[in-house]
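User: Let's play a game. I give you a shape written as C-alpha cells, and you guess the letters that built it. Ready? Here's round one.
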C-alpha cells in the first residue's frame, strides 16, 4: 500500500473478507463498498511483461480498481500530488474520482485488474495528454 498521501480524489478502500473453512468471498455492492452506481465493469489481464497502461485522466468518470489476482503498481496524480499504490490483494481497492492522471505499471503475469465504473465507456471523457490534464486541473481550481 502507499505510505505517502494520496492525491485528491483517491482513496484506498478495505473490503470485508467473508472467509470460512471453505475459503474466501468478498461482496461489493453499489452504495456500500462501492460509493456509486455501477454502470460498467471491465478487466485487464494477460498483460505482457514490461507493458504499462493508462496514461490518461478522466473528466467525469469514477472508478474503483482492484486486483482479483496478482499485482500491479498504479501511479496517481492530481496535478499537485503524485503517489504510487501497489495493488496486490483482492481485499483492497483504489477509488479514483475527480481529475486524476493514472498509469499502471509492473503487472505480474497473473494480474487480473478489475475496474468498476459509474459511467458507460466514453472516449470523450479521456484526457490523454498530460499538458491537457494540467490545463483542465488549472481550469477547475482557478
Ligand atoms: C482507466 C484504466 C485504469 C472499450 O471499448 N470499453 C471500455 O470500457 C474500455 C475501458 C476500453 N475499451 C477499449 C478502448 C481501447 O480500444 O479497449 C481498448 C483499451 O482501452 P485503454 O487503452 O483505454 O486501456 P487502458 O488500460 O489504458 O485504460 C483503462 C481504462 O480505459 C481507463 O478508463 O482508468 O484502464
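Assistant: Ready! My guess for every position:
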Amino acid at each position: 500500500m502507499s505510505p505517502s498521501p494520496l492525491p485528491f480524489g483517491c482513496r484506498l478502500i478495505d473490503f470485508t473478507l467473508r472467509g470460512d473453512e471453505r475459503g474466501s468471498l468478498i461482496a461489493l455492492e453499489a452504495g456500500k463498498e462501492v460509493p456509486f452506481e455501477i454502470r460498467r465493469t471491465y478487466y485487464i489481464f494477460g498483460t505482457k511483461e514490461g507493458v504499462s497502461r493508462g496514461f490518461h485522466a478522466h473528466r467525469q468518470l469514477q472508478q474503483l480498481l482492484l486486483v482479483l489476482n496478482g499485482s500491479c503498481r498504479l501511479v496517481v496524480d492530481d496535478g499537485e500530488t503524485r503517489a504510487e499504490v501497489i495493488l496486490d490483494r483482492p481485499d483492497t481497492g483504489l477509488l479514483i474520482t475527480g481529475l486524476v492522471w493514472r498509469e499502471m505499471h509492473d503487472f505480474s503475469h497473473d494480474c487480473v485488474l478489475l475496474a468498476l465504473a459509474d459511467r458507460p465507456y466514453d472516449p470523450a471523457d479521456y484526457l490523454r495528454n498530460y499538458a491537457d490534464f494540467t490545463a483542465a486541473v488549472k481550469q477547475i481550481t482557478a
